[in-house]
Amino acid sequence: MIALLLGSHGKFAKEALESAKMIVGEQENTTSFSLEENMDLKMTIDSAQDAFNTLNTSEGVLLLTDIMGGTPTNVSTVIHKKNPNTRLLAGFNLPILVEALLNRSMELDELVDYLKEQFPGTLSDVS
Questions:
Q1: Rounded CA gap, 42 and 29, in Å?
Q2: Which residues of the chain carry a pLDDT beneath 70?
Q3: How many C-beta atoms surround the C-beta of residue 55 within 10 A?
Q4: Average pLDDT across the chain, whole number
Q5: Domain containing 107: what range?
Q6: End-to-end Cα separation, the chain, in angstroms
Q7: Residue 45 needs a FRET pair 20 to 30 A away by CA distance; which of 9, 11, 66, 95 works?
Q8: Based on the structure, what is the number of domains in the chain?
Q9: From residue 13, how far is each of 10, 73, 105 by CA, in Å?
Q10: For residue 2, what pLDDT is reported?
Q11: Cα–Cα–Cα angle for 97, 99, 104, rounded to 5 degrees
């Protein structure tokens, strides 16, 4: 099953994941990181890397971030470039997250294509 790492400004990623779990049930191999007001870039990178390190990456990792060009996306780009079998999409919302969680049995590239097809113009493929 594909792992999911969500990144956002503030607690959006964490709370979106909690909301999605209310809809689709408890989910394994998922986590998030947040850019908080008191965090500098190094702290954000460390937080994202620590979150990534908790995941089972054997089936691939889908990184979902809130805003293209934002710090969480830029930080996720660093993780993506250092780790094979990852894909990065910016612009996630709750419906996208629910679809990703419900379809994690797909191959990683197949899931990315599916999400972009289901939500045209919403997601930016940073991979």
A1: 24
A2: none
A3: 17
A4: 96
A5: 3-125
A6: 20
A7: 95
A8: 1
A9: 8, 12, 21
A10: 98
A11: 95
